[in-house]
Amino acid sequence: MTVADELTPATPEETEEPIKQRKNGLYPGVSDELAENMKSGWADTELHDLKPVAQAAETAGRRAALSARFPGERLVIPAGHLKTRSNDTEYPFRASVEYAYLTGNQTEDGVLVLEPTADGHRATIYLLPRSDRENGEFWLSGQGELWVGRRHSLAEAEQLYGIPASDVRELPEQLKEATGPVRVVRGFDAGLESALHDKVTAERDEELRVFLSETRLVKDTFEIGELQKAVDSTVRGFEDVVKVLDKAEATSERYIEGTFFLRARVEGNDVGYGSICAAGPHACTLHWVRNDGPVRSGDLLLLDAGVETHTYYTADVTRTLPVDGTYSEIQKKIYDAVYEAQEAGIAAVKPGAKYRDFHDAAQRVLTEKLVEWGLVEGPVERVLELGLQRRWTLHGTGHMLGMDVHDCAAARVETYVDGTLEPGMVLTVEPGLYFQADDLTVPEEYRGIGVRIEDDILVTEDGNRNLSAGLPRRSDEVEAWMAALKG
After folding, report:
1. pTM of the model
2. Domain of residue 90, CATH code
């Protein structure tokens, strides 16, 4: 950071007020002469003839479906605001999925409003316009153009997103005066929720959130293409990691995390979730994201990571790799069992199947192995009925995937886990076995070994397609792949 820190960022509501100074800024103020000087002498940078964003046709169709579901009602979908990381620094912004899904826009403070009309809805995207040069916002505000980069003008936004654009600073007052039924996606804009507090109900707003979650269960062609893009970048990220395992051994799991993150930032927007770079017994901690442990030859590395594309679609892939390139006998035994379970799970993914089928198929194989190895007393049906295998399998075998790594989470149970698979759905299949380092119920040779294999599976008209098939899964293929990359 540099001396930009001298002046306090202005919120959208503050931009008509004098820009506040920081308590400990080095400049006591702005002279009238400097303020006047900064108003003029700037070239016109307005962008013309912009092309619509790639998903503009899809977002228009999604808004049409939303309009049809809630006729006669005003619908308010906010992007959200910057969140403070510490003091006056913010986390990187990520718009709400609901907003990005319906608009293609990803800027903070935006709001999509669907105003009811006689034959549907009129959509308006409310955004902050270019930062003001007349009042000095563009150079005095911490969120001004000279500090964080230019925003699109409202005219530019209309070209990009195909939606009429207005100044978001005027929206709260407009909504206070709104009449008729209103729904808002909650949790992203407290100011809007306050403006609408006497016009909305939690139950009605939840119906809107559920609909927007369920409409994403089946992906369109654009979304499937973006997910494949995310997976392809993720495959390259895994290859990057294998090539630097010697450097990770010399440092820590952080080297693996940083290596994958570089690929995510170069080819995408970010990682889709905190990368799990779990070496040795850390592989038994399902969401090990501290990534500060040692990487040792002879141990396994469980790498669970995904690149997020510029349009927010994320991959979610896991491989469990021998750090030195070769599985030991016990590691291979456990790995092959998980692979067999995953094969059964993937085979159960097809149109018309129950969503739970792939989970049940994978859990049955893992349970059979646990009984066969003498780790739990059979018969298999008894173990499954009582859920005893869960001591070592722990989690569900997969989830929907899309703009969220755990996509469509607000969908109703009857349409998600109790639902039926359809072409266009994308889900993960990720069985695992985890033998904790302190688990005295298993032989010592098992302890500290964790294995998960995860792939991203598209339901097709005649079965499924493994989007992440570019990464080997079978143990011998993994060893050969690693040897080739290291060689």
Report:
1. 0.94
2. 3.40.350.10
Percent of the chain with pLDDT over 90: 92
pLDDT confidence bin for 1, thresholds 50/70/90: very low
**Burial (Cβ within 10 Å: 0-12, 13-18, ≥19) of residue 298:** exposed
- Mean pLDDT, the chain, rounded, equals 95
Contact call for residues 325 and 347 (beta carbons, < 8 A):
no
Please indicate, yes or no, whether residues 188 and 255 belong to a single structural domain of this protein. Answer: no
* Dihedral class, residue 424 (left if φ above 0, else alpha if ψ from -120 to 50, else beta): left
DSSP code, position 6: G
Cis peptide before 281 (omega within 30 of 0): no
**Alpha helices (runs of H) in 215-323, residue ranges in sequence order:** 221-243, 245-250, 253-267
Domains: count for the chain: 2
Cβ burial of 123 (10 Å; 0-12, 13-18, 19+) is buried
Which positions ≥6 away from 381 have C-beta within 8 Å?
none
Q: How many CA atoms within 13 Å lie on the side-chain side of 183?
A: 21
Residue given tokens 């893009």 in the structure block:
229
In three-state secondary structure terms, 420 is strand
